[in-house]
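Progress against Task 2.4 (sequence-to-structure conversion) is shown through the following example record, which the project officer requested during the mid-term review.
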Amino acid sequence: MKVSMDWTLVIIVLQVFFQPSLSVLFTVQAEQTVYQSKYGEKVVMGCRFSPQPANPKSDLKVTWHQITPSSFQEVIRLDNGEISASQIYQGRVRLLTEDGWAKLEMSRLRINDSGTYQCLVQTSDGDDYKSISLSVVAPYKSVTKHIEEAAEAGDVILTCQSEGFPQSSVAWQVGHQRTHNPSNTSVSETPDGLLKITTQIQVSSSERNNYTCNFTKDGSSATFHIPDEIPQKSKNDAAIVIVSILVITGVVTVGVLAYRRRISKKGSRAHSVHSTRNLLVDGEDKSAATCIQIDKENADVVINVDDMEETLGSRLKAFYSEYSAETRRHCGAFSVEELPQRLQNNDGQPVNPLDLLPEPGETVFLEGLPGNGKTTVAHILVSSWAREPSHSLDLSNLSLLLCVDCSAVKQDLYQEIKTQLSLPEETSAEELRTVLTKSGKVLLLLDGYREGNHDFDESLRMFLSDKGGCRVLITACPGHCPTLMQTAGAGRTLKFSLQGKSL
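Structure tokens generated for the chain above:
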């Protein structure tokens, strides 16, 4: 009995003696387990580890991962004193490891940054990790509204639209009393992962009332004052009849002239071909070099490229001037004179705006993250070309600038050019291709390009493979056009950002 009690005493003494060593086990603790931040803003997620290693440079290794149901993506790591970030996070993440902290700072947050993150810390004293959840939301801040006539006489359709995340319900209110069920609400996803919600109701245009659409998640709203906001129309029935007669007469006249012109072209085809050949032989005629012959609808047609280029240039400048006010609103207080000071590459070095322009026959890919100002640059280039050349950005060496918004293309390249730039319907794809490829003074600007529309992608690749002297500038987010870069005459790739500008 005495021996047994002696051994019990020994065990108790050993436990007391070694108890302090058990308290120094290596642990990692999360500062908080759930974070929420807003789209485009910054978040700092932290975990604290103890004890701290005696030599952090060699004995400390920190790794942050983003975990999804289908992947385990490394974000950033510290190893042997060197910090390295994964390519898809470069420029947006920093690792802070001071005083026992391992903090991940993420800026310019995207919707797909939401998820679970793991903070793994490894030292000579042991390894441990903690999981942290991040939720990125985008408030429905700006609500746009639109009014149009309904099919039913005397009614109008009121439309509200806004972008945000996650999805919000929309409630319509009539006056200050009752709600009104929307007749149509749709949700689509933008390239940035935001949700674009469009909602409509149909109301009487003669009943005086206020109609308000409320995006319930964030409380953003817009109010229609009916009938005050309905676009005014002429109530003079006689004037409407006269205008209708004039329109019909004009359509008939144009049809007759077009028919006669077609008959005339077929009758003089041989003469046109002969005249063109004479021009090409006669070295004294300066316009001969710009006349080419194409096959259009099984008939030889002679196109004077110089004349068509000049006509198209005048039409485009007039077209661009019509939405110059919208361009100024989009760019805000940001002017072309500020562009040289704001334009920077990913190394923070200034970029000459003229360096963005391709050389004749060259394709340039201008890459930047969402919100870095690619569309702003495109608008400034269009505005600078359409108006008198400014001292800071002179594009007078370009005879044509064709800008195509690629964010929602539905047709091939030439149809999109005709539709977006309001060109005459009879303008053929062959005529456009001829004007684009014949001169080195033409710039084709494709803004916000992203692979995915088969017709547009195929027609663009075919054009780039035989673009002649055309200059091509394509703005895109990183990773949005890998196939095009590999297979369709890729040239320079510029990565840039606009200092102090977010769009």
